[in-house]
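cron nightly-structures :: item 1 of 1
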Amino acid sequence: RSSDLQRLQENVDKTLSCLDHVISYYHVANDTEKTIKEGPTGRLEEYLGCIERIQKAVEYFQDNNPDSPELNRVKSLFERGKESLETEFRSLMTRNSKPVPPILILDLISVDDELEEEPTLEHLPESVLQDIIRISGWLVDYGRNQDFMNVYYQIRSSQLDRSIKGLKEHLRKNSASFGIPYSPAVQNKRKDTPTKKPIKRPVYIPGTIRKAQNLLKQYSQHGLDSKKVGSALTPT
């Protein structure tokens, strides 16, 4: 009899646990609504955690109680969360995509064996890049559309165009000179090696702009595209 009582107690515990699990789905909308409405800015991981809870609630109600009004609530929250992530993606790309300075482009074109390290080109700050990768990864897996990729292409193309326009203007202004002043990074490097000859950067000659375009396209492939989000975001 004691074993029967023990078995009964175990069954009761399991039943209560299942009930708690089911009831928790009915709390998801209330628990997450405030966060979803406020958006993901500054708390992306928390936001994605809320969307994950909402997604599981949607799946539960679709499978077990499709007539429940809670299904419509969580579906609405899911769509709102997805739209907020798309908006955040665009905002992060727009705020942080800046033209590459002409001097830096010329440093990258003119780099030679005298420099121990190439000048570095950072298209996006690392922390911003990680957020963009997380958002784009979620949108690829769960967003059910890939409109955000068009945003990526548009902003990257605009950045490339502005960089090339800035370079053309810089070369036009300096076309009468023999060389172009060093960027601060190269100046600092040269202080340590005063005996070496200065680099003569190219003035406006055929091929300089084409080289710059190819160079910037190559560097643009080392952002999102090298982070495995990635095959869907390779620039064209």
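cron nightly-structures :: done
Residues 178-187, 199-204, 226-232 have pLDDT under 50 and may be disordered.
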